[in-house]
């Protein structure tokens, strides 16, 4: 049996090198795909800092899926162009034109992009530097039967955690003793982006008939709590947990719901805000009851709000329409295969009707890394350095 090594108490933020986000920090284009770590740190104005992160493990949905759905019996795949047009021209299964937020984080910390867990050879080869378990359309809860019937099977959080448990069984053989293995897990970063499908697709197709919005949010919080505790029991200590973005403002929602008096679908956003409000007390409670744990909230909702309020400040000219062309040309479907997307991809918040462009992913990554107003109680870089 493996026991985790002792962890220092949560060091106060002032002991870390502190970085703030200001208008002068805004970069209007993502860095080159092949940029090295040193150049990227300079690009982000992070100076001469030392980063020693052994691994990056990722859980979630299409926001972070690097291609796990390519290996599943599901129609929900993004393994064709124009997806990946800026990922060295190779569609990988990412639901954007280039890199995702976790790809940028990996580049910042000097690690390989965490490979899909279901790409067995790559996941095993890279297990010591990180693996990505994200699955497009996955949720905190298993997908409802209607969703399974329509789209096939995707990985829920419980399934992703089970895959991670298998990873740890293989991984511990690479360490000399239990202490060094436990230290590896305790020092690694675990990134979570989940809940959007539960509050969107799952709710719309089935769950709304069985729950009130309040009771459903509580169910999700209770399930998420158990899942995070399960990972803690497996040795995880550094948790970075995103809340859910304002999906009522994505192109698909606006086209389908056609709000008449507001710019976004406020009923959907209200449901999301109700859930998001319950995440901070959950993370605070977990950190206070799980010795040595560090839980940091990524306020994705606020980042989107800030971008929508002042798009030009972030280099965007279009916050309402997707960049790629969908089959019906009405922003109600994923990108049509092999159809050229818009030229000004960096200026669009959304690449397809549901998902952010590479530049929006970059905005999110750099704000998480440097800005404690959207990453609390400390920013992501401070969590990494802890």
UniProtKB/TrEMBL annotation:
It is found in: Secreted. One of its GO terms (molecular function) is hydrolase activity, acting on ester bonds. Residues 1-24 form the signal peptide. Keywords: Hydrolase, Lipid degradation, Lipid metabolism, Secreted, Signal. It comes from the Eukaryota. One of its GO terms (cellular component) is extracellular region. InterPro entries: GDSL, GDSL_esterase/lipase, SGNH_hydro_sf, SGNH_plant_lipase-like. One of its GO terms (biological process) is lipid catabolic process. Transmembrane segments: none annotated. Belongs to the 'GDSL' lipolytic enzyme family. This is GDSL esterase/lipase 7-like. It comes from Durio zibethinus (Durian). The gene is LOC111313162.
């Amino acid at each position: 049996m493996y026991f985790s090594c002792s962890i220092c108490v949560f060091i106060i933020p002032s002991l870390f090198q502190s970085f703030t986000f200001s208008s002068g920090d805004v970069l209007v284009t993502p860095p080159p795909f092949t940029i090295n770590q040193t150049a990227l740190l300079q690009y982000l104005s992070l100076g001469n800092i030392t980063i020693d992160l052994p691994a990056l493990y990722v859980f979630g949905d299409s926001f972070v899926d690097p291609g796990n759905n390519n290996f599943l019996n599901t129609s929900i795949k993004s393994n064709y162009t124009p997806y990946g047009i800026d990922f060295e021209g190779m569609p990988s299964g990412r639901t954007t034109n280039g890199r995702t937020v976790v790809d940028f984080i990996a580049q910042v910390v000097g690690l390989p992009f965490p490979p899909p867990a279901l790409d067995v050879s790559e996941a095993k080869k890279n297990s010591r530097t990180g693996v990505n378990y994200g699955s497009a359309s996955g949720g905190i809860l298993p997908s409802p039967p209607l969703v399974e019937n329509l789209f096939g099977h995707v990985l829920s959080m419980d399934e992703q955690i089970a895959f991670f448990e298998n990873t740890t069984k293989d991984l511990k053989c690479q360490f000399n003793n239990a202490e060094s293995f436990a230290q590896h897990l305790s020092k690694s970063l675990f990134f979570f982006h989940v809940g959007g499908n539960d509050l969107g697709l799952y709710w719309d197709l089935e769950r709304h008939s069985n729950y009130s919005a309040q009771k459903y949010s509580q169910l999700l919080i209770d399930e998420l709590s158990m899942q995070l505790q399960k990972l803690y029991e497996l040795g995880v200590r550094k948790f970075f947990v995103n809340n859910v973005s304002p999906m009522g403002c994505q192109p698909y929602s606006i086209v389908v719901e056609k709000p008449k008096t507001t710019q976004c679908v406020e009923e959907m956003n209200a449901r999301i805000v109700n859930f998001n409000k319950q995440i901070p007390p959950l993370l605070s409670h977990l950190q206070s009851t799980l010795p040595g744990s560090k839980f940091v909230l990524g306020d994705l909702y606020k980042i989107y709000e800030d971008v929508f309020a002042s798009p030009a400040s972030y280099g965007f000219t279009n916050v309402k329409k997707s960049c790629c062309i969908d089959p019906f040309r009405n922003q109600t479907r994923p990108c049509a295969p092999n159809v050229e997307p818009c030229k000004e991809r960096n200026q669009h918040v959304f690449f397809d009707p549901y998902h952010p462009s590479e530049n929006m992913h970059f905005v999110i990554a750099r704000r998480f890394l440097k800005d404690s107003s959207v990453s609390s109680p400390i920013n992501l870089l401070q969590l990494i350095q802890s």
